[in-house]
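Hi everyone, sorry if this is the wrong subforum. Our group has a chain we'd like a structural model of before ordering constructs, and none of us has done structure prediction before. Sequence below.
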Amino acid sequence: MNNAATSWPKAPGVAEAVSSALMNRPGAASRSGIEHFDIFGAVRKKMGKMLGISAYDHIALGNNATWALNLAIFGYPFKKGDNVITTKAEHNSVLRPLYELERCGLIDVTYLDTDKAGRIPPDKWTDTLTQVKPKLVIFTHASNVTGAVNDAKILSQSAKSVGADVLVDVSQTCGWEDIDAHAWDADMIAFTGHKYLLGPQGVGGLYVRPDLKLKPHLIGGTGTHSDLRTMPDEMPSRLEAGTGNEPSFHGLLAALEWAELNPLVHIKYHKMLSTLREGLTDAGAEIIVPEGRCTPTVSFNLPNKSAAEIGYILEESYDIICRTGLHCAPKLLNGLGLSAGTVRFSFSRFTTMDEINNVISAVKDIANEI
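Answer:
Right subforum, don't worry. Here is the predicted structure as tokens:
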């Protein structure tokens, strides 16, 4: 029940693909992976299709979404005094890079409040854009605390109307919600492969629109243009220093191929989500229930018990794995008056209704303990 952190189990075929890549001989003549097969190019093509991107060679591949967001934020061509708008729902992988640039006196950042469900209010977003006139806006497609999905098209196009570039973090939605960078008119999209894409850890990436040139955040070998003293200009080499995680990207490719053959049917999971929310409420839990579209994520607390205590009991006594605390989104939890954090359940495509019922039963047991 911790799939918003990392998915388990992985898609069928992922482990075998990783193992095969580790056992097989790597390509000898280039950095393109197994001889005669460019794994990174294959993943880029699949991810381009999933993200609504035709220029798939402008997807830089790396470790995870944190890598991608750092690449985007530290590599963006800011000028001293530029304004940035982000939200209080953001993950620390957005907040901490922005804090650092603020500390250096390079940018001014506006942190927009969300509603009580963790969703960005479009009217407040538009008003703030008009007042601040930012150079860059950054927002998450969905809250990793509440699961509330934002209308990325409206938010992005509003930002474009005042001349801002747009960076969207789709870590919590990629593989679960439809993503369309072209329709959104987004300039950068950061994603990870180990959550709802059902791939292994250690894979992620950043799409950068073709006419936006980022400064490389990492500098090193690229396997091409090795005589240059600087990173190459062409993408994706410009942003991909060092040896890529070839075995894990074989795993991600296997997950993407499995997903193509097994389309997600949301209605099944809507029932599970409703059942989980209702069961937790019956147990006496105080839960955050956003209206509208949501990922399969529920945050809650029980009266007179800390989130950490609940999580410990669930794991030790019931073998139920979840997440407790601030979920790396401290501004959102503090804004909701939940500075001690919450218990977070997040299920996956492989979660069953029996498991949901077992989780509800366990929480009821904990709530009824004297």
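For your construct planning: The radius of gyration is 21 Å. The CA atoms of residues 89 and 332 lie 5 Å apart.
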